[in-house]
Amino acid sequence: MVNNSGAAASYRDLTPDLILDAVDGLGFRTDGRLLALNSYENRVYQIGIEDAAPLIAKFYRPGRWSDEAIMEEHRFAAELAEAEIPCAPALAGEDGRTLHEHGGFRFALFARLRGRAPELADRATLEWMGRFLARIHVVGSQRAFAARPTIDIASFGEEPREFLLQAHFVPPDLEAAWRSIVDLALDAVRRCFARAGDVASLRLHGDCHAGNVLWTDDGPQFVDFDDSRMGPAVQDLWMLLSGERDDMQRQLGWVLAGYEQFRDFDDRELHLVEALRTLRLIHYSAWIARRWDDPAFPVAFPWFDTPRYWQDRILELREQVALMDEPPLRPA
Fold first, then answer.
1. CA 232, 126, 321: angle at the middle one, nearest 5?
2. Half-sphere exposure of residue 166, counting CA atoms within 13 Å on the CB side?
3. Residue 30 belongs to a domain with what CATH number?
4. What average pLDDT score do residues 74-81 get?
5. Domain stop point among 50, 84, 111
6. What pLDDT, on a 0 to 100 scale, did the predictor assign at position 10?
7. Residue at a domain's end among 82, 111, 140
8. What's the whole-number average pLDDT of the chain?
């Protein structure tokens, strides 16, 4: 899955001159304007272009994805755009390629999309989101990824648990408590997956939260398919829900009212909502830990390396264990 061809390159070496030279090398004429956008896993910039709209340049984290995995991301977004689903597919150069290399870094260019955050407490917004997510899943179900992984218990729960313990990120005086609750949480996740049964797996956006949706008067625009993976359809739905149980059930009803206009939804997947949330919480801690040697991470997440962070994670997982033993959400 990982291509280490650029692993020796560090983001410390990703200078403004290198970034602008990379874009100029594809035949564009940059005007010197460069704005770093909010991204930690990759480095993403808005690049000024002479006599044209700015472009977005994404420089992929060295060693994370293979070339083929990145190309699968690009092809999926291109399929969605061809199906008239609003997103930003990678732009092809004169040679037809969408993945480029410069100075040891792999990168891609995208058109700049503009919009605002979606109002996820609004019924019309959630129904609209549901319709477009169903259309994404119709395309996503037409073929499988070959180089990109699946959202599952092993990669999002068991392996991150082992990494955090072996790398000694959990404070020693909290390790026993964290180990105990994460094991209880993973047992509860397994029970949820067992109750759901053999649900379908398809190509997903994978990280469909409000920050990856730009809203316009014409509806949603979906950005950042970097975490696109195989998995159950509900993975792209549950992050749209928030609040108390009654709130989430009402929001779920609105999302599914739109979704089922274009695609049937398997209600068994509702057993996975809190399980997927739990896996994301465990995976998130390990994601920060894996990137801790990137200077941007201690600055962005100064609370990570503190006892309070892990105390809060223990309480959070206890709450998740209780939620996973409750009946699943039902659309209201």
1. 50
2. 8
3. 3.30.200.70
4. 98
5. 111
6. 82
7. 111
8. 95
CATH code of the domain containing 234: 1.10.510.10
> Could you say which of 152, 183, 187, 207 is catalytic?
207
Percent pLDDT > 70 in the chain is: 97
Q: Region 74-87: what's the mean pLDDT?
A: 98
On whether both 178 and 234 belong to a single domain, the answer is yes
The percentage of residues in the chain with a pLDDT greater than 90, rounded to a whole number, is: 95
Q: Is 40 helix (H, G, I), strand (E, B) or coil?
A: coil
Is 218 considered catalytic here?
no
In a domain, residue 116? The reply is no
230 and 289 share a domain? Answer: yes
Is 217 in the active site?
no
Write down the catalytic residue from 152, 224, 226, 227.
224
CB contact at 8 A, 81 and 222: no
279-332 pLDDT tens trace = 999 999 999 999 999 999 999 999 999 999 999 999 999 999 999 999 999 999
Candidates 328, 304, 308, 30; CA nearest to 169 is: 304
Task: Indicate whether 199 and 310 sit together in one domain.
Answer: yes
Q: Are residues 143 and 235 in the same domain?
A: yes
Could you give the C-alpha distances from 197 to 45, 157, 172, 278, in angstroms and in order? 42, 18, 38, 18
C-beta separation of 215 from 125 below 8 A: yes
Kindly report, residue by residue over 176-218, the tens digit of the pLDDT.
Answer: 999 999 999 999 999 999 999 999 999 999 999 999 999 999 9
Domain that holds residue 59: 4-111
Please name the residues in contact with 248: beta carbons below 8 A apart, sequence gap of 6 or more: 241, 242, 329
